[in-house]
What we know:
By secondary structure, the protein is of the alpha+beta class. It has one domain (2-152). 55% of the residues lie in helices and 16% in strands. It has six helices and six strands, in the order E-E-H-H-E-H-H-H-H-E-E-E. It has helices at residues 13-21, 29-40, 56-64, 71-75, 79-102, 106-130; strands at residues 2-5, 8-12, 50-53, 132-136, 145-146, 149-152. A four-stranded antiparallel sheet has the order 1-2-3-5. Helix 1 (13-21) packs across helix 2 (29-40) and helix 5 (79-102) packs antiparallel against helix 6 (106-130).
Amino acid sequence: MKIIKDGKAYVQLKDLSFLISDSGFTIPKSVYVKSLYDVIHMTEHNKNKFFVFTDEEEIELIKKATCIADYDEIKGLSNEEFEELLSASSVELDHLREKKREAKKLMQFHSLSVAYKSEQYKITSCKEARAIKKVKLPKTNKNKLLDFTRKSR
Length: 153
């Protein structure tokens, strides 16, 4: 899950890990330098903590990462709108699955596989964000792992 607020991008460590390793995005070196230690040492206990970015290039990367649910977008959806979002993602998964079967070149297959993984991740990320009623972000310095208040619906 990600939250873009007040010139900062907050992203959960598990989502940052996916973005770095499996999303196909070109990751700025600064993201690696600031977060790689925490990503490598991710555990069940800290995977839901937020990592904070304040650099404009890093914030833009997080904004463009559609595979990571934006909490502020998800929380405002009605149940019907949320189901439509999941349905559209499921249709996209079916489309990508079919294209993967028809891929003739290894590079094309790899590219489609990355897109497929990202769409799968998006569905999971949206469901997780939807299950959270309220997130209260603490005020802190940049590039730190943060706990957050989490209240389930």
